[in-house]
Fold this sequence. Notes:
TIM Barrel; eight-stranded parallel sheet; 37% helix; alpha/beta; globular
Amino acid sequence: xxxxxxxxxxxxxxxxxxxxxxxxxxxxxxxxxxxxxxxxxxxxxxxxxxxxxxxxxxxxxxxxxxxxxxxxxxxxxxxxxxxxxxxxxxxxxxxxxxxxxxxxxxxxxxxxxxxxxxxxxxxxxxxxxxxxxxxxxxxxxxxxxxxxxxxxxxxxxxxxxxxxxxxxxxxxxxxxxxxxxxxxxxxxxxxxxxxxxxxxxxxxxxxxxxxxxxxxxxxxxxxxxxxxxx
Length: 230
């Protein structure tokens, strides 16, 4: 069932790419496995899936310890500075950098492991008070401030769009993030590439892909509804 769900999402991504005149190879599907058992991850792993997203540090640490070493772990949730040290050695990408203090902590911990950690700047495009992220008008200067950190590489931008019943309502959010990335890319800032746009989840990833997403973070459409009571 999980592999069928995954393949269905991949098919939808390919269709969205066709509608947008894009190559489907430009888009990576991240299976968001938070709260899901390791057996579910292994079912997808055996299907060839390697990119998984987690929101909680303790859960990520345990799964990383128990599961194959070639899994690419994406930290997609809000990250507390005092937790960076637990994932700095192996995390593939940190998706939600929204303060200079957090970026500096990532720099410090990455340096200890002699590696450069790719990060995405989280932008609160919709201006939701309940969401983290840098304001769109402050993003360019924030990117410049982070760019001076040698063990942190700004690989692009991410956003979490509002939860809506009609995905079309989020099209403008994705358009704005894409436009912002293009604008920043024109600046040719050292240690910054705008190759990654992490946007789109189960309810709106098709629209996000049409608007330029290169990473989509899909959980429920692959794993089913989550049980947070455990």
